[in-house]
From TrEMBL:
<dbReference type="Pfam" id="PF02625">
    <property type="entry name" value="XdhC_CoxI"/>
</dbReference>
<dbReference type="InterPro" id="IPR052698">
    <property type="entry name" value="MoCofactor_Util/Proc"/>
</dbReference>
<dbReference type="InterPro" id="IPR027051">
    <property type="entry name" value="XdhC_Rossmann_dom"/>
</dbReference>
<feature type="domain" description="XdhC Rossmann">
    <location>
        <begin position="180"/>
        <end position="322"/>
    </location>
</feature>
<protein>
    <submittedName>
        <fullName>XdhC family protein</fullName>
    </submittedName>
</protein>
<dbReference type="Pfam" id="PF13478">
    <property type="entry name" value="XdhC_C"/>
</dbReference>
<dbReference type="InterPro" id="IPR003777">
    <property type="entry name" value="XdhC_CoxI"/>
</dbReference>
<feature type="domain" description="XdhC- CoxI">
    <location>
        <begin position="24"/>
        <end position="82"/>
    </location>
</feature>
């Protein structure tokens, strides 16, 4: 099976790590701000981060007056040579008794202020390398030690862990948050790759046609392979961060691909097609003895109903549905 070349997009935090490492390497005092906990309508979610120097920054912890105040605070610390890490609580309510952020959007955040010592440069470079490998590593920082990168092969582990208190510890998986496999490399696949490349997905596109130009020239996918659809199952990983969209050239190949993946344990399994096509496909699966529990996990027809017509509009409708699934707790 051919692995075709691609020009992948970068994980969300790559610019932050690059800015921090380059600044530190140049001897410029630098700090990292990271949201270690968030709840309610906080503007910056857990894991949001930014790199700050006296004259520059990269990334964001939510914007607004809160971000401005904390950026100026950490810049003052750097000027004073204060490299003590601190976690600050920010409450986004006008009448909060303490820790008011200046914002009134409700919710609250805890934000790590981490001035970066020169000896942290090795761990920043390790973060950059780990991000390029799309997973398998975790970034850890704690009250009793500087940041470090450790191996992480547990695919079931949570993306982020935060232990509050005096001996606080924060850790997060490095690389893309979730993995998307698109089965089918046509025009809608190209448009969906483009849309989801901005949303922190590691994107794989599989097609059974070795010379399909929309597959060969897709610059947004991180991995592209030519795979017979009746050999699809081993090519698609399982797990709570796996999303799969089937959009092959026609009904028959959709059916072959779906049968291969029907019992895969993934967060999202969707099939592109009209209501008539999907009804016929599900009828065939029922007639073949497929149990209703497996059929109930299929999202089909996929996409939110926004009367989309073009490949780009269809991609947006599918991306919106995937975002809704990703941001909905699995217990709901």
């Amino acid at each position: 099976m051919d692995d075709l070349s691609a020009t992948p997009s970068r994980p969300r935090d790559m610019l932050v790590w690059k800015h921090a490492a380059a600044s530190l390497r140049a001897g410029i005092p630098t700090a990292l701000l990271c949201v270690v906990r968030s709840e309610g309508s906080s503007p910056g979610r857990q894991g949001s981060k930014m790199s700050v120097t006296a004259t520059g920054l990269a990334g964001s912890i939510g914007g607004g007056i809160m971000e401005h105040k904390l950026v100026e605070l950490v810049r003052a610390r750097l000027r004073e040579g204060d490299y003590t890490p601190e976690i600050r609580r920010q409450v986004h309510r006008a009448h909060a008794r303490s820790d008011r952020s200046g914002m009134i959007c409700s919710g609250e955040q805890e934000i790590l202020l981490l001035p970066l010592r020169s000896e942290y440069l090795a761990s920043l470079e390790a973060c950059k390398r780990a991000l390029r490998q799309s997973g398998g590593f975790r970034w850890v920082v704690a009250a009793d030690g500087g940041p470090r990168v450790v191996a992480d092969t547990d695919v079931t582990a949570p993306l982020i862990r935060f232990q509050p208190g005096e001996n606080w510890q924060y850790e997060e998986k490095l690389g893309f948050r979730d993995q998307l496999t698109i089965v089918g490399g046509g025009h809608v696949s190209l448009a969906l790759s483009r849309t989801l490349s901005t949303l922190d997905f590691d994107i794989t596109v599989l097609d059974d046609r070795p010379a399909l130009h929309t597959h060969l020239l897709n610059p947004y996918a991180h991995h592209k392979r030519t795979v017979p659809y009746d050999k699809l199952a081993p090519e698609v990983l399982e797990g709570p961060h796996q999303y799969v969209v089937i959009m092959t050239v026609g009904y028959r190949t959709d059916a072959v691909a779906l049968r291969q993946l029907l019992h895969h344990q993934v967060r999202y399994l969707g099939v592109l097609g009209s209501s008539n096509k999907i009804t016929h496909l599900l009828q065939e699966l029922r007639a073949a003895g497929t149990d209703e529990a497996a059929l109930s996990r299929i999202h089909a027809p996929i996409g939110l109903p926004i009367h989309s017509r073009t490949p780009e509009e269809i991609a947006i409708s599918i991306a919106a549905e995937i975002i809704r699934v990703r941001n909905t707790p699995e217990s709901e």
